Amino acid sequence: MHNSSSSTISVNGFYNFLTHNLDDLYRSFHPQNVVSIHFLQLVLSSVQTFHSQLTLLAHELHLPVGEKWLDEYMDESARLWEVCHVLKAGILNMENYCSMGANIPSILENNDLNPQQFHEMFRAINRCQRESVRLEEENRSLIETRIKPLTLKFDESVLILSKFNGFNGFRGVLYALRNISSLLLKIMVNGLVYWSNETRFSSSSHRNTTSYDENHTVFGSGFMVAAARLNERMKDGEWGQNGILLYEYQSTRQAMAELETSRAFGTELDISERVGNLKSSFARLQCGVENMIVQLDDLFDEIVESEKWLDEYMDESARLWEVCHVLKAGILNMENYCSMGANIPSILENNDLNPQQFHEMFRAIDRCQRESVRLEEENRSLIETRIKPLTLKFDESVLILSKFNGFNGFRGVLYALRNISSLLLKIMVNGLVYWSNETRFSSSSHRNTTSYDENHTVFGSGFMVAAARLNERMKDGEWGQNGILLYEYQSTRQAMAELETSRAFGTELDISERVGNLKSSFARLQCGVENMIVQLDDLFDEIVESRRKLLNL
Fold first, then answer.
1. pLDDT for the residue 458
2. Which has the minimum average pLDDT: 44-48, 310-314, 521-525?
3. Res. 464: pLDDT tops 90
4. Are 381 and 326 in contact (CB under 8 A)?
5. 550 falls in which pLDDT band (50, 70, 90)?
């Protein structure tokens, strides 16, 4: 089977990956069209790899924070989860049959066979054959009650439709994988659980063809041709009788039948040989059953991890969305302060300043300073009610843990990004909204260091050292007083204070100079606020547009 050696994958790369794996499965199928444990292990390995690659692709395409694509992904994961549980139930049903069959040779291993041992042998064979009937009946019930509603239908004539282009092609990939998974899971079900008319392989309308005409072009047609060939090959292997197709299982039944036949016609040497054949047949079946259970358990673990990863991914996206909304709310609160401050210079621009203008000036400054207090109080409330629960904690001593290696290291990337984002978002919040003890920068335990010892090695330690240095730099910039750290905002407050001072001590020239300073300070602040709003709106528009497209698909 082909394994992806890269942590990145594209839509076309995914389709090519499907094609190569399906071609490998086609070549791996037994020339005599028997469904063996080895072949089914390759099939299950492909299912597991496809699911893993789909999860990586979901990340690579930077899918928007929304519900519909995630719901479709989760629906497919749930279907895979349910079918694999049916597979495991069917295999576990086989365990008792294996243990009963494995006991038969122990009765016959004594070369001095006597009538009593023959009688015991056929009783044991009879019990095992009854167990086989019970096993197949129980597995047939599994198919009827749990597989039938899941519809494992393979459709080889899926057309290219515009809806499959949704989310940078992810929707097409999801439909394609669902279709291919239906075929592969049907192979597994028929081999390990029960084959019947309900789970038979469909007859191909494109037998012995390698391409379709224009009206039957499928998305990623190369892999669909490969899938149709594999479906046809499996169709040829059906044996026309309900039951479990697994070669190793059928071999045990045949070995018991041959041992029964030798009672009437075989020599003692024939019986001994058939005992050995029965023993090895059940040993192969039992070993294969145990291996399949382990492989299924690995797949269950991976499905759980994939869904957990997606939850983490969506949680981080939602956190970013919420913090950016808080940032915008904080900036919008500043707009009224900006407009009030921008009006002060217009009162004082007349050089012939009189007592009435001075009085009006200080009334305007007083109003603006009160607005500054109201602004900071409102922004402080934003921090307490909306930021605090989001925990913008930067941890510079995150250790390398095995859990961070999940999905070719993507889990580590996600944890790292969350950590770094916490630092960057905290810088934004402290600058634009409000700085307080709750959002202060943490003291570095590695000040002025560029590497950590072995016990404190972090994943990607180079970037963590850089982040720790930035954190320390921001820590040095804290001023020990709650409020908005933004330089342009603080400049306006200072300009108003200087203008107030000039009332008592300054000349007319001083006042004129300070009016100009106040004017430019508020102009810089207002321009910066407007630019930040535009930048945030661009981000929100992009997400909203993605959601709109999502709902219209």
1. 47
2. 310-314
3. no
4. no
5. very low
Mean pLDDT of 20-31: 89
Torsion 183-189-192-194 (CA) sign: negative
pLDDT in tens, 92-111: 999 999 999 988 877 766 55
Torsion of CA 60, 66, 67, 70, to 10 degrees: 0
- 3-class SS of residue 156: coil
Q: How far apart are the C-alpha atoms of 230 and 206, rounded to whole Å?
A: 12
Q: Is the pLDDT of residue 147 over 90?
A: no
Q: What is d(CA 529, CA 535) in angstroms, rounded to the nearest whole number? A: 10
Given a contact cutoff of 8 angstroms between Cβ atoms, the answer to whether 499 and 514 are in contact is yes
225 burial type by CB count under 10 A (0-12 exposed, 13-18 middle, 19+ buried): buried
Integer Cα distance of 277 and 294 in angstroms: 26
189 near 199, Cβ under 8 Å? yes
Measured in degrees and rounded to the nearest 5, phi and psi for residue 35 equal -95, 105
Quick count: other Cβ atoms within 10 Å of Cβ 393?
11
What residues are paired with 195 via a beta bridge? 243
| Residue 198 near residue 148, CB atoms below 8 Å | yes
240: left (phi over 0), alpha (psi -120 to 50) or beta: left
Residue identified by tokens 């402080």 is: 380
Contact, 356 vs 497, CB < 8 A? no
Written as six digits, the tokens of 72 are: 């479709």
Rounded to 10 deg, the angle between the 221-237 and 170-192 helix axes is 10
Domain ranges of the chain: 11-308, 314-552
